[in-house]
Structure formats: C-alpha cells, structure tokens
Design a protein that fits this description.
Helices cover 49% and strands 12% of the residues. The chain has 399 residues and is α/β, with parallel strands linked by helices. The protein folds into 2 domains: 3-188, EAL domain (TIM Barrel); 200-398, Hypothetical protein af1432. Strands 1-2-3-4-5-6-7-8 form an 8-stranded mixed β-barrel, surrounded by 4 helices. The model has no long low-confidence stretch (mean pLDDT 89).
Length: 399
C-alpha cells in the first residue's frame, strides 16, 4: 500500500535543530484508517534508503526512525548508517531477552537508541540501561507526573526528550523541568507576547517584505534594496555563482543575476534571507516556510493554475505570525497582498487557501482529514518531496 511520509523537527534547549522524526501512514480511502506500525516502518525504510534518500528527507541531520519488534530483531538494521539515524524503539516493543540482546548489539556498535513514549516500569530497566534518549509525552500531563517519570529515569543518565510540545509555555516549562530535547509544533506558534506593534528591527524586516511584494517592483528597485545590506548582496551573488547553477560567466551584480536566474527567484531569495535575520527564532521556522511555499506552489501547478507565484508567497508568509509574534491579520496590514491572498493566508479561503490548508495538514501528519484538492495523493506527496529537495539545495544560501 502507498504511504504518506513527513518529518517532525526535534530541537535542543537553544532551539538548534537536533534531528527529525520520520512519520508515515498508509494512503487509505477508509475514513477511519488503522495504524500499522510494521507497514509504517517498512515505508520509512523504503523511502529513506531506497527511493528518496536521507539527504533529501533530513538534510545533514539525524533521522529518528520508529522500530517495531520485528525491525529491532532484523539484521537489516545493522546496515543502516549509525551516524545518520536514531533507532526509536516503539513503546509496545516488549523487553524480551531477544529484544534486549538485539539492542545491546546496536548499542555496542555505537547506534543511538531512543525509547518512544516512555512510561517507567521495573521490567523496562534493561531497556533504560541501553538507551541514549528517553521520550516522555508532556501534553496534558500533570507536572507532578512528569517530574516522577523524570526522577525514575534520572539514574540512567540519558538525554530526556519532551514530545508533543505544542506551545511556547509548555516548551518553557519543559526546559525548566530539565528536558534536553523538544519535539512538537510549539515554534510555529506566536510567542507569549502578542503585540500590536513591532520592535524597530522587526519593523525594518517587515518593511523590506512589503517593498518586495510591490506588484510594480522591478530589478532596479530590488537592486537598490539589496545594496543597502552588503551581507545580503554577498550571499545572493555567492549562491548564484555556486556550482548548483553552473552559469557560463561570473555574476557580479544583482541585475545580471536576475537576468540569468529570474527576477522572482532573486525576490524570493531576498525575502527568505531577510526572514533569517529576525532574532531569537529557530532556523527551522525559515526552513518550514520554504517547504510550505514550494509545496503550495507545486500543488498549484498540479491543479493547472496558470499564475502560481501567489501560492508560493502565501506559503512563505504562513510563518510570519510565529516569526513576529503577532497575529497574521495584523501583519498583513503592512504587506500589500491581494484580498484573495490575504483571505487565503488568514482564513484558508479559495483555491489558494485550500492548497495552503492541505500543506499544513500534510506537514503535521493530519492525513486522514486532509483536503486532497481532487488530486492524486501521490501528486501531493511528490509536491512535498520536491519541496524538501529545493530546501536541501538552498542550504548554502543560508550558511
């Protein structure tokens, strides 16, 4: 059976990316699909190592891969690159003698082992002795319960990962409790302070985004904007001159770059780089904006939409609330978007809004209720993989 595959980021205490967990579910028409752990792991292994490749799926980062009992005991796992993956043992895997023996072989070879959705029990002590990372679900759990679980596993000196961290408040609490790693979508939410005005440095970035969205902007305008920031100009020209493009001549000006790679490309890269400049936000937020933008645009192409540039823009701007800690409805007052784009971005209305909503559902693994836009599910997944490939190609732009 065909499957959907996505990734969920895992951050450390400094909001630096630690890795991604690879998530998979079968593509089913059944309105109440059943989860098959074996099939999910089979699909991840096939796509990660035979079809798509780890470099596309997770870039230079580690991939957390869920293992059922069958996969723990499989000889195939010993062929996986130990410097690229984390073996995540699912909570239903029994701590049998065979399982412990298999995990010990992984441990002795230097593989990183994580225990998923862990709840302490005495019979799991042999697992704890081999684990490097313990994952504890913190959503809707009482702090006393979480503290009890942490105290019980503390003697084993593992890293503690808080999973299902869905808000900055919960992230702050988990940091305070002593967790080392954090998995969840908290960083897609605005921070605790939602203001109606922006600090000067953020207002400068938003003003730049606004100028770049002017429908009458031309290359000379963009050239003047970029020249005001020498770092921005250098990064753009360095990227255009990289081996990725293999241009026949050295590019030494933004107008020439625009003629060779396209005005929209230069404009979009400038937007991305300006977003990177917003302080105290995880870089993964920018990565996500690029994945969303490209996937939304690819869906527009698959639907036969002639003008798909606005689809890219609303995907890119869908993280602005989290980036600026302000509701999207307030932010777009400063950006000259069409009414159609505004309604798509804020209310998910119209074809553009439906495409963006599809992307957001796919990203979070909410595949059961996803609006497929009357597309073949395989086309939706291909749009996601194309977006990941583009993002991987853009790493050097942001280095």
């Amino acid at each position: 059976m065909s499957t959907f595959l996505a990734r969920q980021p895992i951050h450390d205490q400094h909001l630096s990316l630690f890795g991604y967990e690879l998530l998979s579910r079968p593509i089913e028409t059944n309105p109440q699909p059943t989860f098959d752990g074996e099939a999910a792991t089979d699909a991840v292994m096939k796509k990660a190592f035979d079809e798509i490749g780890l470099d596309t799926l997770v870039g230079p980062n580690r991939a957390f891969i869920n293992l059922t009992e069958k996969w723990v005991l499989s000889d195939h796992c010993h062929t996986l690159p130990k410097d690229r993956i984390v073996l995540e043992v699912l909570e239903h895997v029994p701590p049998s003698e065979n399982v412990i023996s298999a995990l010990k072989r992984f441990h002795d070879k230097g593989y990183v082992i994580a225990l998923d959705d862990f709840v302490f029990h005495e019979d799991k002590v042999p697992l704890l002795k081999l684990a490097d990372i313990i994952k504890i679900d913190v959503l809707d759990k009482h702090p006393d319960y979480i503290k009890q679980q942490m105290d019980l596993v503390a003697p084993f000196k593992t890293k503690l990962l808080a999973e299902r961290v869905e808000s900055y408040d919960l992230y702050d609490s988990a940091k305070r409790w002593g967790f080392d790693l954090f998995q969840g979508y908290f960083f897609f939410q605005p921070g605790k302070v939602e203001s109606t005005s922006l600090p000067n440095n953020q207002m400068t970035t938003l003003t730049l985004l606004s100028k770049l969205q002017d429908p009458n902007i031309d290359i000379d305008d963009i050239d003047q904007i970029i020249k005001q920031d020498m770092s921005l100009s250098f990064k753009l020209l360095d990227y255009v001159n990289s081996a990725h493009f293999s241009l026949p001549q050295k590019v030494d000006s933004i107008p020439l770059a625009a003629r060779l790679v396209g005005l929209n490309q230069i404009k979009n890269w400038t937007i991305m780089l300006s977003m990177v400049g917003v302080p105290n936000k995880p870089f993964e937020l920018i990565v996500t904006s690029i994945v969303r933008a490209t996937m939304t645009e690819q869906l527009a192409v698959a639907m036969g939409v002639a003008d798909h540039e606005p689809y890219f823009t609303i995907g890119l701007f869908s993280v602005l609330d989290a980036l600026f800690d302000m509701p999207l409805a307030n932010i777009i007052q400063h950006v000259p978007l069409s009414e159609e784009s505004q309604n798509a971005l804020v209310f998910h209305e119209g074809m553009m809004g439906a495409a963006l909503k599809c992307v957001l559902s796919y990203e979070r693994g909410h595949w059961e209720g996803m609006n497929t836009l009357y597309l073949d599910p395989a086309d939706i997944q291909q749009a996601y993989f194309d977006a990941l490939r583009l993002t991987a190609n853009l790493w050097s732009l942001f280095r």
